[in-house]
Structures are given as C-alpha cells and as structure tokens.
Design a protein that fits this description.
By secondary structure, the chain is an alpha+beta fold. Helix 5 crosses helix 6 and helix 5 (about 380-400) crosses helix 10 (about 470-490). The chain has 13 helices and 22 strands. The strands form 4 sheets. The protein has a 9-stranded antiparallel sheet. Strands 7, 13, 16, 19, 20 and 21 form a 6-stranded antiparallel sheet that branches. The chain has a 5-stranded mixed sheet with strand order 6-5-4-3-9, with no helix packed on it. The protein has 2 domains: about 90-120 and about 150-375, Beta-galactosidase, Chain A, domain 5; about 385-585, no CATH class. The longest helix has about 40 residues, at about 1-40.
Length: about 575
C-alpha cells in the first residue's frame, strides 16, 4: 500500500510547490484582462463612423395584425412617404428645464429628441489637479464640461424616445410619432419652490378626435410621466393601442477583444418580464430575431455605461414587448398596450413612464420593479451587490466614497480574518523552514523523488500546509473582480472625489502616486512570504510588483486605493504573525 502511494505523493508535492505560483500568474492575467477592458472605456477612442443620411421608408411602428398578435413587422397602415434617417426636427422644439435635466421635445410626434443630465458633466474640471499639473510642468488638457447628453438627435449618436397610438381598422386615425402637435408655449422651466411641471401638447383632426399628450416632470426626478388622453367625438367608437419605444443607433466604438471576452459595461437593449425577469437583448439579438413577448407589467430599456433609458408601461396591464431592426442601422425596443375602445362622446387616458438618467440603484428601485438590475456586476453579482450595499451604507455616514472604500476593505479583512490568520501562520512557518528546504534541495539535487519524500516529511513534522499561502490570493480574486465591476458600473463613483489630488475615484490617479505605493506595498509583502524553491519561479515572482504597478497605473484610483489598504493591513497582520512564529522554538 505504501509503495502505491509514492507516485501520488510525488505529484502532490509538485502540485503544492507550484500552485501558489500558478495562482499568482492567473491573477496577473486577470489584472491584464481587466486593464484591457478598462482601456476600452477610458482609452483613446477611434473616430466615429459616418451614418448615411439617405431617405428611408417609414417602417418603425409595431404591427397590430390581430388582437393577440405580438409581432413587430412594419404595419401596412403606416403613413406614406419617407423621413430622414436622423428623424430630423422639422419644427421648432419645445425646451424644458428642471433642476436635473434639460430636454427638447419635437412637436412632431411629441418625441424627446435631446436630453441633457445637468448634474453629470462629460468631464470634470478640477482646480486642485490643474494647479498640481502646472507645478510639476504637466500640460493641462482641454476639458469638456458640458452635461452628458442621453437622448440625441445627432445622426451619429441617434437616440430618441417616441410614443403614440396604433389605430385599429375602421377607427379614426390617432396620432403617432409623425403627427404634429401644438403647444401653448415653446419653453418651460421648473421654478424655484415648484415641485412639478406639466408640458401639454394637443392634436386634433377634422373627424372630432382630440388627443392631449402631457409630460410631467418632478423636482429631483429622472422619471418623466406621460399621459395621453383621447376625447372621442367622431360619432362612432374608436379602438386602438398606445405604444412607447426607444429608437437608437448602436455605439460604434470597440466592443472588446478576445482576451477580455467583451468584458466591459453592457451597451444595448434590456427587457423585464413577469416570467423571465431581467434579460439583455443585444443589437445582434435584434438583428437575428424580433422580440415578441406578452407580459403583465414589465418594461423595455436601452442602457449604457452609467446611464439608462426605459419606457415603463402600467404594471397592472398586459403589455406587448417588441424589438425591431430598421434600415440604416437603427434599432427599436418598446411596448404597446392591449387594444382599448373609447366610446363615442367619451374620453380615456393612457399612461406610461419614461426613466432617463443615472443608474442609481436605490432611486431605480422606486421607479419600477427590477429596474435596478440594469446595474450589471456580471457573473459576480452575488459578490458585487453586498459590496455595493456596504459601500452605500458607509457612505451615508461618512459622505466620502474613498473613505467608504477604506471601510469596506476593513470589513472584508475582518470577515476573512480567521482564514488569513491561518494562511499567514502557514506562510510564516514555511519561511522559517526555508533554509532546511534549501538544504534538502542541495542534498538531493540528483534524486528528485527522495527530495519530494523528505520535503513531505518535513512539512508533516512541522505541521506546515503548503497550500495555506494560497488562501489570500483565492479570496482576493473574486473580491477584486467584483470591486472592479462595482467601480465600473456604479454611477456614484463617477467623478467622486476622495482627497487631495484624487478627485475622481473612477479614473486613474493623475500623478500615479497610488499605483507606486501599491507596488511598494506589494514588494514589502512579497518579502514576508517564503520564496519559491524553484529559482526560475523565484525570479519571475520578483518581477510581479513591477508588472502589477505598470497595470495599476491605468486602473481607477478607487480600485488601487482598495489594493493599497488591503496590502497595508495584510503587511501589519503578517509582520506580527511572522515575528511570533520566528520567536517560537
């Protein structure tokens, strides 16, 4: 029996000797992939591809070929003629401004053609960083401080929020997003002390059908209410459906590479249904097949890095969700209501809600069920969600996201304290017996099987677990990657200041101070660890602090801050344990 176990012992020793090295190399590869993914969002962008501005046939209304149909093919009853691919504004727009958004509504269809997020500039201008740059002789880059534009009428960034009615056969035609409305005034502003603002638009035809479309804005809110009232004085019943949809062209920037596997913030369509909950519907999915689904409640949205736009129909009605690919690279995602009949000489109101703003989870939870899921932490959501929750709780007390990161790092270290304590003890014992291992290696340089046997006997005698040192790396990999996604996806970290020169935790340290500190801390911690027996592995391991420092130069400052604090706490803990073990007989 002992003879049969000898080959297994040999292999086990070799595995334990190498597994820590393999884990470190694997972690380095993950860091490299995350670095590449981060560069996709924050590195130099390629020039945008021009979008053709040729005329196309109108084909962007959902089909209603029967009461139960959920198809999205072009309706045969659509308006004749053609429109430009940009759905260009042909009349003077209606300007609306609240405390958080500024937008333009095109009277043609009551379409929201431009929407700016006033509290979210494209880039942050910081006087502290600029002064430091000038002191060290660095150039001050041009800063675009204009607000982020979510909806956009520009051809290359086309993104519109449309709504209207689909008229059933034998009913008077109701307005869609090509019908021209009239407005009482051409600008509206939410005044100081005013909590809400209503913007009414009116459409009337010669047959006695009148439609009033009212947008409602509330102070501090990114949710826009939409009420469409139909007054039927046509002499007969009117039957039709309300629809609301988002029209967009895809972002033309790089979608990722083979190494990252497209690991970056998702940019595309999403839907939420009662049965399947949250689902991504990418532009490629829309090309392959039109979405056709009926659900109670639900919603449709287009999301991007940090921001989301969603049409939310009433939760208590059955809604038809759809997608469609149009010509010239445009895509639709939206929903339409059940068929509703408005009796002659009566009125009926249709409602919906449009969310257009930052993906702040506590805010989105109050707007619609599941809307907070647009903040995507990838496969590590089960780790990312608790990290975000804890960050949010600490921030609500301290009011600084950098200090919140430090607080989360402390909590994580406390949570895994027993594991790290056992790990560091094992590594300290390994360090203590390192001279004896080298002696064995020299004695049995020509007899590898004997060396493995003697090494196993030494481990057993000294009660050392060679795998114990792998625990900190194994623990840190999912936490590190989850924190990467939290920083990448959580809009609260965008342009969030910490202190001194760190005025934006979501981008790299402008003076590379934190990455250098991280590299030094990694080198110190490496000195506390037992060196690999294999001399080649030992040389490679010595290079890792330099390699990691280079990678971390371009990582977000918040992530580097976490790593610096984590390394500092580990150095303190490991130093204390190492001294205790070395003093022991």
């Amino acid at each position: 029996m002992k003879v049969a176990l000898i080959p297994f012992q040999k292999n086990l020793v070799i595995r334990m000797d190498n597994i820590r090295f393999i884990l470190v190399v694997t972690f380095a590869m993950l860091v490299f992939m995350l670095y590449q993914a981060w560069q996709i969002d924050y590195g130099p962008k390629p020039p945008a591809t021009e979008i053709a501005s040729t005329a196309i046939n109108v084909d962007d209304l959902p089909s209603t070929t029967g009461a139960g149909d959920t198809g999205t093919a072009a309706s045969s009853e659509q308006p004749a003629g053609s429109v430009p691919v940009t759905a260009a504004v042909t009349t003077k727009t209606i300007k609306v401004k609240t405390d958080v958004i500024a937008l333009e509504i095109d009277p043609q269809g009551g379409t929201i053609v431009n929407l700016d997020l006033l509290n979210y500039p494209v880039e942050q201008s910081n006087s502290v960083v600029n002064k430091l740059r000038s002191l060290v002789g660095m150039s001050i880059p041009d800063i675009n401080t204009s607000p982020v534009r979510l909806f956009n009428s520009d051809a290359q960034k086309l993104f519109l929020a449309q709504s209207g009615f689909i008229t059933e056969k034998d009913s008077a035609t109701a307005p869609n997003h090509y019908s021209v409305f009239s407005a009482e005034q051409d600008s509206y502003t939410l005044a100081d002390g005013q909590d809400s603002l209503s913007v009414p638009l009116t459409w009337t035809d010669n047959n006695g059908l009148t439609v009033t479309k009212v947008f409602t804005f509330k102070r501090g809110s990114y949710a826009i209410g939409l009420d469409q009232s139909i007054q039927n004085n046509t002499g007969k019943n009117w039957t039709g459906r309300q629809y609301s949809q988002l029209l967009r062209v895809p972002n033309t920037q790089d979608k990722g590479n083979m190494l990252t596997g497209g690991m970056r913030a998702y940019d595309g369509g999403v839907v939420y249904t009662e049965k399947n909950k949250y689902q991504k519907i990418s532009f490629d999915d829309m090309r392959e097949e039109n979405l056709k689904v009926v659900t109670k409640g639900g919603w449709t949205a287009m999301i991007q890095h940090y921001f989301a736009s969603a049409w939310i129909p009433p939760a208590d009605q059955e809604n038809n969700l759809y997608t469609d690919e149009l010509k010239d690279g445009r895509f639709l995602i939206g929903s339409y209501s059940p068929s509703i009949t408005v009796l002659d000489n009566t009125a009926t109101k249709f409602s919906a809600q449009l969310f257009a703003g930052p993906k702040i989870q506590p805010v989105m939870e109050k707007v619609a069920t599941g809307l907070e899921l647009t903040v995507d932490y990838s496969v590590l959501t089960f780790v990312g969600k608790p990290i975000y929750w804890l960050l949010n709780k600490i921030h609500s007390v301290v009011g600084n996201w950098g200090i919140a990161i430090i607080g989360v790092t402390l909590c994580i270290k406390l949570l895994f304290f027993p594991l790290s304590q056992a790990s560091f003890k094992s590594m300290a014992k390994m360090r203590k017996i390192q001279p004896r291992l080298k002696e064995l290696q020299e004695r049995f340089a020509d007899d590898r099987p004997r060396f493995n046997t003697e090494m196993m006997a030494l481990y057993k005698k000294e009660k050392v677990n060679p795998l114990g040192g792998c625990l900190p790396i194994l623990i840190q990999i999912p936490v590190f990657m989850a924190l990467y996604w939290v920083l990448s996806e959580t809009v609260e970290f965008r342009q969030a200041p910490f202190m001194l020169w760190i005025q934006d935790l979501s981008i790299q340290d402008p003076f590379y101070v934190l990455p250098v500190i991280m590299g030094i801390s990694m080198k110190i911690q490496q000195g506390l660890n037992p060196a690999p027996i294999d001399p080649i592995q030992a040389k490679v391991m010595k290079m890792f602090p330099i390699v990691f420092t280079v990678f971390f130069l371009f990582f977000p400052a918040g992530l580097v801050l976490y790593w610096v604090i984590n390394n500092t706490l580990s150095i303190i803990q490991q130093t204390i344990i190492t001294k205790q073990i070395e003093k022991a007989p």
